[in-house]
Give the backbone structure.
Amino acid sequence: MKIDPDRDIVIDRLLKAPPRLVWRCWTEPELFCQWYLPKPWRVSEAVMDLRAGGRFFMATSGEDGQRIANEGSFLEVVPERKLVFTDLFGEDFAPIEAPDTGFGPNFTAVLTFAPEGSGTRHRAVARHRSAADAAANREMGFMEGWAIVTDQLEELAATL
C-alpha cells in the first residue's frame, strides 16, 4: 500500500504474540474493550459484525463520565491477516453524517497481522480524509496514544 505522508499515520510494531492472539484482541468485543484506549479512558461497549459492510461500533467512557460513541463499518476482513474499518460509512456502507462536535468521520484503518518469528508484525495505517484531519490527530497525541494502546494490546495478547 502506498503511504501518503500528509494524510496517513503509520504504526508498525513487532508484537510478542502470534497473529491469532493479536487478531482475537482486535475482533472479540470483550477483549477489545480491555485494551483499546489509554487509561483512564475505556471502551464500555463494542459491537463487531466481522464481514464487509458489517457494523463496527464502540462507546468510550472517561473518568469524568464523558461518553463518546463511534459508528463505522468493516470494509475488509481476512481472518488473522487483515482488518480494514472506517468511520466514514456505517453498516452496509451507509454514509455517516458528521456529528455536531466539529470532528466528524475521520479515517479508515488498515490493520495487518503478519507472522514474524514467534510474534506478529502488526501494522496499523490510519488513512485520513485530509491532511488537516491527520494533522489534528497528530496534534492531539494520536501517535503517543497508539503507542500506549499497542503496549496494552501486546500485554493482553500475551495472557491468552
Q: What stands out?
A: The chain is about 25% helix and 35% strand. The two ends are 31 Å apart (CA to CA).
